[in-house]
Design brief:
Radius of gyration: 15 Å
Number of domains: 1
Distance between the termini: 24 Å
Strand content: 15-25%
Number of strands: 3
Oligomer: single chain
C-alpha cells in the first residue's frame, strides 16, 4: 500500500516521523510502500538549527522528502484549489501522482534529477 508519511516540523512531529521511518526500514510494517515524508512547517519563518539537524536526520531514513510551507490562511480557510496552493504543495501532488503510476525505472530517473 502506498503511503506518504506526514509530520509537523516541530520536535515532537519529527521524532514521531523518525520512529515511523525506523519501523518501516526495519520491516516491522509489512505491506507499506513508503513514498516519502511530507514535512509541514509548524510556524512561519526559518527553523531553529536543532530542528534543521533533526529534519536532515529523518530525511535520510525515507525515500524522498517534501517540505511544505506555513500557510496562515489555511488555519481559517475551508480549503483551496490545487492551482492556488503553494508551489511546494503542487510539487508534492505531482510527485505522488507520478510515483503512483510510474515504473521502477522512471522512479529511479526522477530521483536522480533531485
Amino acid at each position: 500500500m502506498p503511503v506518504v508519511l506526514v509530520a509537523r516540523s516541530h520536535w515532537t512531529g519529527l521524532r514521531a516521523a523518525q520512529l515511523a521511518a525506523t519501523d518501516w526500514a526495519s520491516g516491522q510494517v509489512s505491506g507499506v510502500d513508503l513514498l516519502g515524508l511530507a514535512i509541514l512547517a509548524d510556524a512561519p519563518g526559518k527553523r531553529p538549527r536543532a530542528l534543521k539537524d533533526l529534519v536532515a536526520l529523518v530525511a535520510g531514513a525515507v525515500p524522498r522528502t517534501w517540505h511544505l510551507p506555513w500557510v496562515e490562511t489555511w488555519r481559517i480557510a475551508e480549503g483551496t484549489s490545487e492551482a492556488a496552493a503553494p508551489k511546494e504543495v503542487r510539487r508534492l501532488l505531482t510527485d505522488v501522482r507520478t510515483l503512483l503510476t510510474a515504473t521502477p525505472n522512471a522512479l529511479m530517473a526522477q530521483d536522480r534529477k533531485r
